[in-house]
Amino acid sequence: IRLLTIESTCDETAAAVVDDELNVLSSVVASQSHLHDRYGGVVPEIASRAHVERIMPVIEQAMTQAGISLADLDAIAVANHPGLAGSLLVGLIAAKTLSFAHNIPLIAIDHLQAHIYACQIDSGRNVFPCVGLIVSGGHSNLYRCETALDFTPLGSTIDDAAGEAFDKVASMLGLGYPGGPAIQKAAEQGDPQKFKLPRPLVDNPERLDFSFSGLKTAVRYELYGPGKINPGARVDLNPQRVADMAASFQEAVVDCLIAKADLALEKTRYNRLCVGGGVAANSHFRKRLEADAARVGYELFIPPLKLCTDNAVMGAIAIERYQTGLFEDLSLDISPGLVRHTVARLSESG
Ligand code: ATP
Ligand code: MG
Ligand code: FE
């Protein structure tokens, strides 16, 4: 069984060919981040236009790399939920068109389930049931994952997503976009204890939610002083102060994520944690998770970096749908969902 998988939920245009043993026959990811970086976040209109330009070349490249033709495909799968509406539409229309024109079965992919499924693809083992933690630019969610296709939400962020906080704090520190890798790098030279930042909700054993907005504000007050920001204000951004703030902020985010992952494992009594999304690429977070898994005694699954950020390989979750006969017809629509994204604000970026 061979599937073409298509991913266009946010700002990566991606396609892959995978088989039912989870072999990756090809994988192509066209990033758009250079189109968005000057705005400090993803601009939805720019994203959808860029998807339109890239989608067919990316699909063709994935097919060529795999060395097969459309006639060899058993299904075409596309992520239709959640994401930016205009971005999702481009992938969906490409998938539906190819499915109709070549008479190939169509399958829907839940992008969040796919992020967790990356752990299954990478490890080659059955990772379910598990607690799923998705931390990306648009999400900070905890799930009870009974099977690959059966997720129950346990908690999520009540304001900003973790990646969004990384991006905004990086912008305050003058580190550019995307902020996650920039903060990680700056933090290497910094003291994580230098600034006392809050760990919102961590002390509340009743809640499996996150809150990163207050943490972001705490960084802002530390840098600019409390109150309204005067755009002309001089801020001390010497490299050591930036490094210390990056390290202190990163430590606080990681503390929050790990505390709630531990609580979710305790409440579900599961002993496996699967982590996905762009923030899972953070090297400090990965180290802390490994130490936590050893301390608490659970099994940790965390994919390599290229399977943490958006990609089409994780769309191999569609194999699970193929095997249960979960096919779609041409009425399949997008379901953007309540996705919060680091959408650029022109006034902040100058
Ligand atoms: P979605 O939320 O819909 O999955 P997305 O495109 O926002 O979509 P990803 O591509 O998975 O999500 O992740 C991007 C986010 O991950 C950005 O906010 C980025 O700053 C963050 N990120 C990437 N690398 C790192 C890192 N090393 N450390 C911390 N954050 C990182
Ligand atoms: Mg992305
Ligand atoms: Fe994603």
UniProtKB/TrEMBL annotation:
Substrate binds at I134, V135, S136, G137, G138, D167, G180, N282. Its main location: cytoplasm. Residues 23-316 form the Gcp-like domain. Keywords: Acyltransferase, Cytoplasm, Iron, Metal-binding, Transferase, tRNA processing. One of its GO terms (molecular function) is iron ion binding. Binds 1 Fe(2+) ion per subunit. Fe cation binds at H111, H115, D310. GO terms for cellular component: cytoplasm. It catalyses: L-threonylcarbamoyladenylate + adenosine(37) in tRNA = N(6)-L-threonylcarbamoyladenosine(37) in tRNA + AMP + H(+). Its EC number is 2.3.1.234. One of its GO terms (biological process) is tRNA threonylcarbamoyladenosine modification. It is found in: Cytoplasm. Coiled coil: none annotated. InterPro entries: ATPase_NBD, Gcp-like_dom, KAE1/TsaD, Peptidase_M22_CS, TsaD. Required for the formation of a threonylcarbamoyl group on adenosine at position 37 (t(6)A37) in tRNAs that read codons beginning with adenine. Is involved in the transfer of the threonylcarbamoyl moiety of threonylcarbamoyl-AMP (TC-AMP) to the N6 group of A37, together with TsaE and TsaB. TsaD likely plays a direct catalytic role in this reaction. HAMAP family: TsaD. Belongs to the KAE1 / TsaD family. This is tRNA N6-adenosine threonylcarbamoyltransferase. The gene is tsaD.
